[in-house]
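Bumping my old thread because nobody answered last time. Still need a sequence for this structure:
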C-alpha cells in the first residue's frame, strides 16, 4: 500500500493522481464493481453512447492500477452481461471493439503490469479472434500473482448458478455443501467480494455475482462510471472501513 511500514486506521498518505488514500490495514481484499453509467455520461455531453464506453474503459484501466496500488488483491468488474446483447447492434459492436483494444494493450503491457487476468462468463458467442485474445491473456498472465483482475463477459449471476448446478450433476452429484457448490462457480477458487461498488445512481445488483455477494458490503454512488476516479474509490473504501461485518452474528456493539 505504498509503504512496507503498516499504518493505523485514520492515517492517510498522498497517492498518485492527487488522491488521498486511507492507509489502513482494513483494505478490502476483493472489490467487485458494476461499471454503470457510460451511456448517460455520453448523453449528458451530446456524444454517442460508444464514446461513453470508451471513457468507461479508461476508467476501468485506472481503477485496476489504483486497486493494485492500494493492495486490493482481487478486482472483479461487470463488463458485459448476458442481457447486454439486447442493446443496439452498433453499441454492442463498439463494446466488442473496446474489449479487443483492451486485451491487445494488456498483452503488450503484461510484463510491466504483472496483473493476472481471468474471464468469467461464456465466451462462445464472441468472435474467434476475441475468444483467442481472451484465452491468450488468461494463459499468459497465470504466472502473475501480485494482483488479480476478473472480467465478467457475457456473464449473468443466475446463468452462473445454473452452470454450477450442471457441473455438479456432471460430477456425479457428490454430497453437497455451500463450500462445494461454490467451487463450481467461475471464481470458485478465490475469496468472495468484500465490497460491491455500483456507480451510476442505480441501487440494485443486476444479476451480478448473486452467489458470491451474499455477505458483501454494498456501496452505491450517483457518480457515473467514467467519472468514478481515485477519490471516489477512496470514499467507497472509507465507507467500507466504517462498517462492521457481522456475517449473521450480533457483532461487538449489539446484544
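Sorry it took so long. Here it is:
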Amino acid at each position: 500500500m505504498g509503504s512496507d511500514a503498516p499504518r493505523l486506521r485514520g492515517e492517510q498518505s498522498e497517492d498518485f493522481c492527487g488522491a488521498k488514500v486511507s492507509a489502513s490495514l482494513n483494505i478490502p481484499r476483493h472489490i467487485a464493481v458494476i461499471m454503470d453509467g457510460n451511456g448517460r455520461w455520453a448523453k449528458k455531453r451530446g456524444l454517442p453512447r460508444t464514446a461513453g464506453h470508451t471513457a468507461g474503459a479508461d476508467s476501468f484501466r485506472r481503477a485496476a492500477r489504483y486497486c493494485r496500488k492500494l493492495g486490493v488483491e482481487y478486482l472483479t468488474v461487470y463488463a458485459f452481461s448476458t442481457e447486454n446483447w439486447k442493446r443496439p447492434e452498433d453499441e454492442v459492436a463498439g463494446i466488442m471493439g473496446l474489449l479487443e483494444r483492451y486485451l491487445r494493450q494488456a498483452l503488450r503491457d503484461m510484463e510491466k503490469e504483472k496483473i493476472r487476468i481471468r474471464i468469467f462468463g461464456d465466451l462462445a458467442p464472441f468472435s474467434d479472434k476475441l475468444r483467442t485474445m481472451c484465452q491468450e491473456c488468461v494463459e499468459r498472465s497465470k504466472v502473475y500473482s501480485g494482483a488479480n483482475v476478473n472480467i465478467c463477459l457475457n456473464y449473468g449471476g443466475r446463468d452462473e448458478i445454473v452452470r454450477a448446478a450442471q457441473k455438479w450433476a456432471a460430477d456425479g452429484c457428490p454430497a453437497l455443501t455451500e463450500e462445494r457448490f461454490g467451487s463450481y462457480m467461475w471464481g470458485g477458487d478465490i475469496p468472495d467480494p468484500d465490497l460491491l461498488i455500483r456507480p451510476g445512481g442505480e441501487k440494485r445488483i443486476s444479476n451480478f455475482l448473486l452467489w458470491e455477494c451474499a455477505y458483501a458490503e454494498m456501496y452505491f454512488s450517483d457518480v457515473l462510471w467514467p467519472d468514478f476516479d481515485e477519490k471516489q474509490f477512496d470514499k467507497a473504501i472509507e465507507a467500507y472501513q466504517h462498517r462492521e461485518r457481522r456475517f449473521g452474528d450480533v457483532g461487538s456493539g449489539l446484544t
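The longest helix spans residues 89-113. Let me know if any region looks off to you.
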